[in-house]
Design goal:
- 33% of the residues lie in helices and 26% in strands.
- The chain is an alpha+beta fold.
- It folds into three domains: 84 residues, Rossmann fold; 65 residues, ATP-grasp fold, A domain (Dna Ligase, domain 1), CATH 3.30.1490.20; 193 residues, 2-Layer Sandwich (D-amino Acid Aminotransferase, Chain A, domain 1).
- The strands form three sheets. Strands 9, 10, 11, 12, 13, 14, 15, 16 and 17 form a nine-stranded antiparallel β-sheet that branches.
- It is globular, with a radius of gyration of 20 Å.
- 47% of the residues are buried.
- Bound molecules: adenosine-5'-triphosphate and magnesium ion (2 copies).
């Protein structure tokens, strides 16, 4: 019986544990928080991600290690690699947790992306804003997620405000400036690669964000096949360059017929949650399969599938469960404003059938705004 150790005990770890049961796997979870939600499903060891002594003890209790949190220090992952197999590798993690290095990688691979620049000082910020034009976005290089650590510069007066808000982080986590993309839509490629170099990608997913946080996803995305093939080719180039093992996501903007890379996530990804109920093989199962050297499962979608994220508090389950197409995922977290606490997946044979299931859910939950983009796209 193989025991998988997961660094980070959030909902991603929780869903890996659920997917690992039919693979005959056991799990142990390592997280700084004693109430980490994956701890409801597997033994939880509490400790800091930079406590090498505690991490080594954890490594001794498992056979193979992965993570559900992209901000585990790459140095900790590198230290554990000397003790047990760790996937994805520490180098891939290091690249993906720094926006400057991931964008530099995309650029070196010939993947188009928005204008970007390292911002060490207010003076450089002023210069680069003048060069990129308005609007543009300042982001922390490290540790940002769900749109946190970002400041949108809409007019010249915002430059000082952006530096006021984020400037002191230039010396710690670093800052970058990005040109603002007036995108037609946001897409993501969720893909898996194993050590033998086998690669599978789920159908390209279309995503809607509200205030920088994922709100809804739809697969297939409905974009022309050539666009989807290009998106997957970009993701594959990144994975091969990093000798990546496991599941990852590449987020892209589609703008004026062109794909621009936004960021990658070195882990299972929120925009792949629909695969839990809507694909032949889920991202969670294939992440584990990849890391264990097992053949990757078929990543095709079962008809058409979508996901709605629940933030803050869980809504009523009944309207979702009243639909045969509906699947309910409650992460077992304490409610907190803006926190990802659960999601619902929907899967149907046809777009029309998916619309039929979704429309009453949007109405019953008072979430027409969240459901509307899906209905319009289907
Ligand atoms: P995640 O939770 O996906 O890790 P994050 O905090 O790392 O998010 P980004 O993905 O960089 O942040 O940005 C969040 C969202 O903000 C994007 O999905 C997009 O909707 C918007 N956004 C980010 N960068 C740009 C940009 N350069 N132009 C236009 N919109 C952008
Ligand atoms: Mg991110
Ligand atoms: Mg993102």
């Amino acid at each position: 019986m193989t025991t998988v150790g997961i660094l980070g005990g959030g909902q991603l770890a929780r869903m890996m544990i659920l997917a690992g049961a039919p693979l005959g796997l056991r799990f142990r979870v390592y997280d700084p928080a004693a109430d980490a939600c994956a701890g409801q499903l597997a033994p939880l060891v509490t400790g800091a991600f930079d406590d090498l002594q505690a991490l080594r003890a954890f490594a001794a209790s498992v056979d193979v290690i992965t993570f559900d949190f992209e901000n585990v220090p790459a140095a900790s992952v590198a230290a554990l690699t000397a003790l047990k197999p760790v996937f994805p590798n520490a180098q891939a993690l290091a690249v993906a947790q720094d926006r400057l290095s991931e964008k530099t990688l995309f650029q070196s691979l010939g993947i188009p992306l928005p204008a970007f620049a390292d911002i060490p000082s207010l003076q450089v910020l002023e210069q680069k804003v003048a060069q990129f034009g308005l609007p543009c976005i300042v982001k922390t290089r490290r540790l940002g997620y769900d749109g946190k650590g970002q400041f949108r510069i809409r007019e010249q007066a915002d430059v000082a405000a952006a530096w006021q808000a984020l400037g002191e982080q230039a010396g710690s986590v670093g800052l970058i400036l990005e040109g603002f993309v007036h995108f037609d839509c946001e897409l993501s490629v969720v893909a898996a690669r194993n050590a033998a170099g086998d690669f599978v990608a789920w159908p390209v997913t279309r995503n809607w964000h509200v205030d920088g946080v994922l709100s809804a996803s739809l697969a297939p995305c409905g974009m022309p096949q050539a666009v989807q093939d290009q998106a997957v080719a970009h993701a594959r180039a990144v994975a091969e360059h990093l000798d990546y093992v496991g599941v990852f996501a590449l987020e892209l903007f589609h703008c004026d017929g062109q794909l621009l890379a936004n960021e990658m996530a070195p882990r299972v990804h929120n925009s792949g949650h629909w695969t839990g109920d809507g694909a032949q093989t889920s991202q969670f199962a294939n992440h584990l399969r990849a890391g264990l050297g097992l053949p990757l499962g078929d990543a095709s979608v079962l008809g058409v599938a979508c996901m709605l994220n629940w933030l803050g508090t869980m809504p009523e389950a009944e309207p979702v469960l009243a639909q045969a197409a509906g699947f309910w995922h409650d992460y077992g977290k304490q409610p907190r404003a803006g926190r990802k606490v659960g999601h619902a997946n929907f899967r149907a044979d046809t777009p029309a059938a998916l619309c039929q299931a979704l429309a009453p859910v949007g109405q019953a939950l008072g979430r027409d705004d969240q459901v509307r983009p899906l209905l319009d796209a289907l």
